[in-house]
Amino acid sequence: MANKILIANRGEIAVRIIRACKELGIPTVAVYSLADKNSLHVKIADEAICIGKEMSKDSYLNYNNVLSAAISTGCNAIHPGYGFLSENSHFAEMVERCNINFIGPSSKIISLLGDKATAKRIAKEAGVPIVAGSDGIIESVEDGKVVARKIGYPVMIKASSGGGGRGILIVHTEEAFVSAFERASLEAESSFGDKSLYIEKYIEQPHHIEIQIMGDKQGNVVHLGERDCSIQRRNQKIIEESPSTFISAQLRRKLCAASVKLAKSIGYYSAGTMEYLVDNSENFYFIEMNTRIQVEHGVTEWVTGIDLIKEQIRIAYGNSLSFKQLDVRFRGHSIEARVCAEDPDHNFRPTPGLITNVVFPGGPGVRIDTHIYSNYEVSQYYDSLLAKIVVHAPNRRDAIRKLRAAIEQFVVEGIKTNIEYLYVIMHQPDFVKGQTDTGFITRMNQTIEGERNAGVSG
Ligand code: ADP
Ligand code: ADP
Ligand code: MG
């Protein structure tokens, strides 16, 4: 199997992958930027190699440096994690050409699905319902206007190469269309280096439900159930859980079957996620596929007992899936909360700086995935994610209690974090009731604002 794996990432996901390799007995090589020389992934890997300066483009996004690191250390596989180069088909292709195993699907599949507009076309061809919108990329503002008028306002303008909740704009009226389109185009160019846009009908307060699938190079594909990721701020997930309290058993079956069918239609292998929006009448619409491991994979690992990273590695080396669909059993309820270096009191601005002290929660059913430790310096250059708290309990109510207790015991000193904000979310009556569509955070913020104003005037 593997002789050595290079982890082309940083932060908690690099740590997570190195741990999986250790359990499999595979040596690891970490790569790091100048800002990360004291990072945990560097300390726990067997070897570590500096790949450039602080800015991502000079290090974690620099193909040549990452590839040279892999070749010079004699690695025969690269795990890309999430973000960075994980969904970059050019990088995957270069890795393939160097005869190195890319731990993910083939570059060809990534190039088809990485482009969100193309991915929708493929889903449509496989008979999976998609959100109404443009047929692929919009070539001009005028074309866009025509499409928007046809599907009806409000519409969403989305960057075809977008991700992480960025590059998405809602437009309510035709008057606002031209300036929104131009702004979206500029933003897409500067954030993703690709100004292509596509248009979708705006679905009112849907649920975000995604299906985890796993396939091997022998053509087997299984699903590992769903995750409900509807608790979002600015289209970015904050809380994720499995199972979803919203969908019926019948809808679950439909979503899982559609996802497996879609994956099989393109010969997909490795881990992948189909993302859907589900409206209140249980209509579902495919929005995109992530051809990589996801941030929230831990909740699926808790409910299925399957290690997704180890499975990804085994599959990359040509092994068939270690389980069949009928072997997959779903147990209990799992919820994840993302702890970030952000200040909720100042519009969630990033809060880099020195963590002077950190205390992690623990106990049965509590998992912390993180790269931080006391005296760790949070860099301004990367994502603000500090840790993921993932809990597991026999039912949702107990899982909520466990997560509340864990959040209370999580101490980070030296920098401001969103921990208290997570605590507030976990205590919202709507959250407890499972009324968690994507409008949840906006409604919660309005309630908090209202209470604050009442407090001031009263
Ligand atoms: P998930 O779909 O796994 O929940 P997120 O949407 O939160 O993941 O994104 C995971 C990470 O990858 C974040 O750090 C995000 O900023 C980054 N990311 C995702 N897609 C892109 C992209 N197209 N370009 C740049 N960064 C991305
Ligand atoms: P990303 O690549 O950044 O993850 P997605 O296309 O997955 O972008 O969308 C992110 C989130 O934005 C969704 O989970 C949903 O909350 C919201 N969203 C996206 N498309 C629509 C739409 N057509 N209508 C309503 N909300 C949407
Ligand atoms: Mg998405």
Describe the structure.
With 458 residues, this protein is of the alpha+beta class. It has three domains: 99 residues, Rossmann fold, CATH 3.40.50.20; 70 residues, 2-Layer Sandwich (Dna Ligase, domain 1); 243 residues, D-amino Acid Aminotransferase, Chain A, domain 1 (2-Layer Sandwich), CATH 3.30.470.20. The chain contains 15 helices and 22 strands. The strands form six sheets. The protein has an eight-stranded antiparallel beta sheet, with helices on both faces. Strand 15 and strand 16 form a beta hairpin. The longest helix is centred in the C-terminal third of the chain and has 18 residues. The radius of gyration is 22 Å and the shape is globular. One adenosine-5'-diphosphate binds next to strand 11. The site of one adenosine-5'-diphosphate has 15 residues, from strand 11.
